[in-house]
């Protein structure tokens, strides 16, 4: 089981259904709205292996390629340094 969390140098602000994330101190700010905000929240809330499953349980009428789109966004957030392994994970604090 892989756990994810916001990287230590990332500021996160949630307002309504929008998540703002930015590397400190200089940004840039990334704005996640709608499904992207839901994916961020689920990525930080449980095992990485079930993010798509948990997101799709909350979304009606998702297209058939939704799991791969979700996995792509999570991979992008990890590669860009916004998400990192959680405590107890290899590479985590």
Write structural notes for this entry:
The protein has a single domain, classed as Outer Surface Protein A, domain 3. A hairpin with a 2-residue loop joins strand 2 and strand 3 (about 20-25). The chain is built from three helices and five strands. The two termini are about 15 Å apart. A three-stranded antiparallel β-sheet has the order 2-3-4. A two-stranded antiparallel sheet has the order 1-5. The protein has about 90 residues and is of the alpha+beta class.
Write a concise keyword list for the protein shown above.
single chain; 93 residues; alpha+beta; Outer Surface Protein A, domain 3; three-stranded antiparallel β-sheet; two-stranded antiparallel sheet; 3 helices; 5 strands; 24% strand
The major pleated sheet works out as: 3 strands, antiparallel
The rough form would be described as globular
Helix tally equals 3
Helix-strand string: EEEEHHHE
Runs in which pLDDT lies below 50 for 5 or more consecutive residues are: none
In terms of structural class, how would the helical and strand content be classed?
alpha+beta
Largest sheet, order of strands side by side?
2-3-4
Mean pLDDT: 91
Distance between the termini: 16 Å
DSSP summary, beta strand count: 5
The appropriate CATH architecture is Alpha-Beta Complex
Our Rg estimate from Cα atoms comes to 13 Å
Number of structural units classed as domains = 1
Please write the CATH class name: Alpha Beta
Q: How much helicity do the residues have?
A: 25-40%
CATH topology annotation: Outer Surface Protein A, domain 3
The portion of residues forming beta strands comes to 15-25%
């Amino acid at each position: 089981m892989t756990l994810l969390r916001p990287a230590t140098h990332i500021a996160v602000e949630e307002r309504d259904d929008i998540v703002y994330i930015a590397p400190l101190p200089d940004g840039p700010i990334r704005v996640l709205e709608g499904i992207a905000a839901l994916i961020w929240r689920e990525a930080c809330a449980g095992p990485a292996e079930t993010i798509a499953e948990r997101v799709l349980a909350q979304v009606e009428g998702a297209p058939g390629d939704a799991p791969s789109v979700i996995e792509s966004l999570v991979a992008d957030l990890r590669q860009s340094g916004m998400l990192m392994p959680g405590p107890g994970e290899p590479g985590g604090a």
